[in-house]
Amino acid sequence: MKDILKNIPDKREDKNTTSLKFKSDLIDYLGDDYKDKVCLEIGAHKGYSTRILSFLFKKVISCENNQEYRDFSKDLNSDRDNIEYNGMDVYGSPWNFDNIDVVFIDCNHEYSYVMSDIGNAVRLAKQNQELLLIFDDYGLDNPWEGVKEAIDTYVKDERFEIVKEIGEPKGSDCNPRANLKEVEGVICKWKNKSKSKNIVFMPNIDLGNGRNSSYHYSAKSWKAWCDKNDCELLVWEDLIFPVEDMKVTWQRYYLFDILEANNIDYNQVLMVDADTIVHPDCPNFFEETEGKYCGVRIDGCYEWTLRSIRGFGDLLFNGGRIHPWNYINGGFQIVNKNHKNFFEAMKGYYNTNKKNIIKSTEILRCGTDQTILNFMLHIEKVDMKYFPIRYNLQDLFKKNTMVLDKEMQHWMNDELYFLDIGWVYHFNSIPKNPLNRDANYWIERTYKELYK
After folding, report:
1. Cβ atoms of 367 and 428 closer than 8 Å
2. How distant is the alpha carbon of residue 409 from its chain centre?
3. Are strands 268-272 and 199-203 parallel, antiparallel or unpaired?
């Protein structure tokens, strides 16, 4: 190592290179494992890091647009015969490189440029290849904070991960402009595998009461939306337990068990009630989750909500209360792998308190799992994101968006007012009415108006 680092300046001597600790950590991490591989260097400056890389790889392709810096690097590394110098503008030219194993990125640190660098780099990876990406200035304190911000953006993709922190630690004075806000550098890995799709999971259990007679229209609407947004629809039709032992609404918390038992890979999952229709122009809400547990606050009958909170709070939670303004409707929940433990907690709570839950549900008659779900979200301190009501437009009759009684609603046209209010229409809590327009009627009518 001492020979490799001989006459190489530290970052304290030249702010535009990496620290000696960064280089030393990189040498330790790569070792002899990459001596038959190719490294692409984006932003080489004077070639100090290029020199280190040339001892660790079979070949280094060094991209530096500044002719003066390229010439300096050539003089510095005149004894190295495995460096290919490239003067391309990496932001104005295509990255036409083949057989790249590692990309060292230390170029423009503004967010948009770093995003461009990462995007171009990962496109070099072959199918099923693991591409290593090395970043300097991850902890740089500057007006852009582009390197860390861009990496944080990519980390949300399951194919991208930080595997090693290298260089000077947080708080180091290695950069003369300001102490580091985070560690100096990171090594990341991109796994070029087919990206797991987002899934729409819709229970559609036929209990023989005719309630689900129109749910095939719901499924068709969600299938059309999934096809448009590169997602998959999974319609769950088989009970896990008899409904006498566990209501269907409780059985849906076996979601992850169902997916894994059927070898279904996934990224995020929307659990949506079958008495819904989605508008064909509904945006891809999976892009709005921020990786959090997502739901839509209740926006219907607050008397029912308060009665349910008070009732279940008294019977199951020792008189506890939760805020109704953070109470979500259970018919639209977006989750991911990070929420498996919470679903385990839900199942565990049911199995431990099964008799009391069944008895309380029969006594109160205001919900099955929904209020308990909200208590558990509060108890488990789940990080929530609340979606706007347009993604779960509930209690449509109470909003006066549908005609159920032409005499009582004589001023209204018989039209689907709710189509102009939201994206996902939830046909719950529709009372008996003179026109016999139940949920099945509205689901079929809405589907045919939107999709026929």
Report:
1. no
2. 44
3. parallel
CA distance 399 to 377: 27
CA distance 293 to 333: 7
26-44 confidence digits (pLDDT tens): 999 999 999 999 999 999 9
**One-letter amino acid for residue 81 of the chain:** D
CA distance readout (Å), 301 to 53, 173, 329: 66, 59, 11
User: For 177-215, what is each residue's pLDDT tens digit?
Assistant: 788 888 999 999 998 876 678 999 999 998 888 888 899
Nearest to residue 314, comparing CAs of 369, 354, 363? 363
Domains of the chain, CATH where assigned: 20-191 (3.40.50.150), 199-444 (3.90.550.10)
Task: Let me know if 242 is exposed, middle or buried by CB neighbors in 10 A (0-12, 13-18, 19+).
Answer: exposed
